[in-house]
Design goal:
Elements (H helix, E strand, L loop, with lengths): L2 H9 L4 E2 L3 E4 L6 H8 L2 H4 L10 H17 L4 E6 L4 E12 L4 E8 L8 H15 L5 E7 L3 H9 L3 E12 L2 E11 H6 L3
Parallel strand pairs: 5-6
Antiparallel strand pairs: 1-2, 2-3, 3-4, 4-5, 6-8, 7-8
Amino acid sequence: MQKDTVLKIFKKIPTVETDRLLMRKMKTSDYLDMYDYSRSDRVTRYLLWKPHPDARYTRDYLSFVQSQYRAGEFYDWALVHKATNKMIGTCGFAKLDFENNCAEIGYVLNPEFWRQGYATEAVRRVIEFGFCNLNLHRIEARYIVGNEVSRRVMEKCGMKFEGVHNSSLFVKGEYVSVGYCAITADDYINTRF
């Protein structure tokens, strides 16, 4: 994975699809849909960030994201529900490690759409993009222990549980343990779902 190639791809992040989702660049105009879920303690309970305090904060965040897209340094897609045209979450690469040819996936979803397979659908598509378009060697994801639903999403997508780093992150005033799951390109090729 060449950094220049990746930056070029993500400067104009391609739109990709699943059966029920259109995955496209986030837009500042998505702020009300994003605020609908990003303000929720339920949503952010197991995330590194706190609930958005108001819709203006969300709009400002999405404005900032536009500059990151222009630089090719933002790797998340908006998840748009095809049936309603509503942005229901995000999924993409939280981190790219060019030296080791690997990436970390992150995702968040509006609770109205929890437990319906949308997160699994989006993560599978991002994994496919990572291996088929970016030629990654390894893709990993992490979750705060207690969020076993997120771990199940990872495992449904072919990732294998690799272990827990006890008290490894200081999040919102406390140390939390973090679980790791991953899939390699070889595993992906051998277990296409």
